[in-house]
Amino acid sequence: MPYSLKQLGLFLLLCSGVIRPLFSAENATIAWQDWSPEVFSEAKKTGKHIILNVEAVWCHWCHVMDQTTYGDATVAAAIAKDFIAIKVDHDAHPEIAARYRAWGWPATIFYNSAGAEIVKRAGYIPPQSMTALLAAIVRDPSPETAASPITVSNIRSTLTAVDKAKLIAMHQNSYDPKYGSLAIAMKFIDPDSVEYALLQGMSGDKSELARANKTLTAALQLEDPEWHGFYQYSTHGDWDHPHFEKIMRTQTRHIRLYAQAYAATQDKAYKNAAEHTLAYLDRFLKSPEGGYYTSQDADLVQGQKSASYFELNNKQRLARGIPRIDKQRYTSENASLISALSRLYSATGQDAVKDQAVAIGQWLLANRQRSGGGFNHGSSDDNSRNDRKLFLADNINALTAFTDLYEITADRQWLNQAIASADIIREQISAADLVGLPAASVDALDPLAPYIDLEENIRASRAINTLFHYSGRAADKTLADKAMAYISSSAVIATRFTEAGILLADAELNRDPLHLVVVGSKSDASAAELFRAALKSYQSYRRIEWWDRSEGELIHHDVEYPVLPTSAAFVCNDKRCSTPIYQADKIQEVILLIEGLAK
Questions:
Q1: Are strands 49-55 and 107-111 parallel, antiparallel or unpaired?
Q2: Residue 414 in domain
Q3: Which intervals hold domain Thioredoxin (predicted)?
Q4: Which candidate in 248, 286, 321, 472 could, as Cys together with 333 as Cys, close a disulfide (CB 3.0–4.6 Å)?
Q5: Global pTM?
Q6: Cα dist. 63→16, 70, 86, 173, 189 in Å?
Q7: Is the CB of residue 438 less than 8 Å from the CB of residue 375?
């Protein structure tokens, strides 16, 4: 059974380093170039092949490959003779990271002089093996496999019964009953699988709830016991062999999931995990200039394994130094942190957490939003220029973050920002990254063409559909459905090992979210108490709003609420609405009744 790209990428994950130029004892150098169309034009003119080294700056094996393989004089000479060399930090290039995620880091990709992919290799390649591989490609540059793009013909926004049953079976069969998580050699939290299991479990499926709890509890072994924060994954099929890099994406996923699990179960171990992870970020990855950095390296000395270092206590570690921190501040990671903090605030009610989320949102607007709208990836982008490529990952995460900020603050500026992000995605990104807008412009086999990424389209379908229920705009529903048309395709599903995210998207796009509205003045303490209680619900598919009549109607004013002498809350789903709720401690009880979960 094939692995999903998302899971296979982590199954093969090996790591990184960025040192240019690279030197060996023989003073070998490689003239690395950046990824650009000009490099491929140069290859066509010179007849040289292309070698692409995709790395990540935070982990071990890319450091080793830089030092031993690319630092080898024979390898350097062979590359100089017949190849043009490109080196890419995958964190800095979302489109390349998405395209080659399944090959892990380092990934080594070869193209012929015409720009066609011919060979792909995952992980560390020793010098002798690389020398032999380079020579073999020069002798015969034909592709190793005849790849073809996935053709998506359906335009539906729902799964067929057959495909839904297939995905449910894949979800159930992919579980490791001994250790939790997925039944593969890498142990980590797959966020969609855990979220799906948690939601199914809270709807009454005890086996799914046990699965979610087992995985979440077991994954606590990946938490750094001294500094907190989570290591990315463990090898050997158990949780006892961690790789020590700490990546922002990993931290934000853990904060969000553990906060959601705490809201559902009230297990304080989950609350502690989320709060400890935030404490790690604030200590090590928070920039004094605003925003958060991208990652912390697995190696104290690049290329040397650091298991013994991470066994030390805080004082001992500091005496030896700390692993390198990548101080790039990317939109996608910071926006994801906003969403994670929004969930943590909802679960705990800590105002300082909400204030952090708002501060990051303001930083993104001031430092990553470009003049014509949309969000650039990093600080190297010129925000005054509108001809730079925008990436779906950055802008869909920003859209999600702004929607989440509206949810926890009831400040309409954030909803307006989310709506503006949807417009940018539709007008400037969707033709490239979402199927059907138009699909004919996307060539999956052309490395310079836009790449359609399943994981990003899952996030897009869910986030834009949620926004639709806040905005009421048909254009948002259409955009969400176009993303769903890709992820619900039988041809796409056939390539997966497991993909619970498709099940989550399918469930959400085909029903209304849980709708909680507080009607009352924002200066009224009882209305504030009702709003806080509404936020405590664990459901991920929800629409929470606070309607102060003095601000005018809600942006999507689809329900008329009675004029009452005191503040009240209402809980609705796609079948019915509650009577007014005046006591905050009654909201969760009414949610269970509305959702049909009361015992």
A1: antiparallel
A2: no
A3: 19-139
A4: 248
A5: 0.93
A6: 5, 10, 16, 36, 25
A7: no
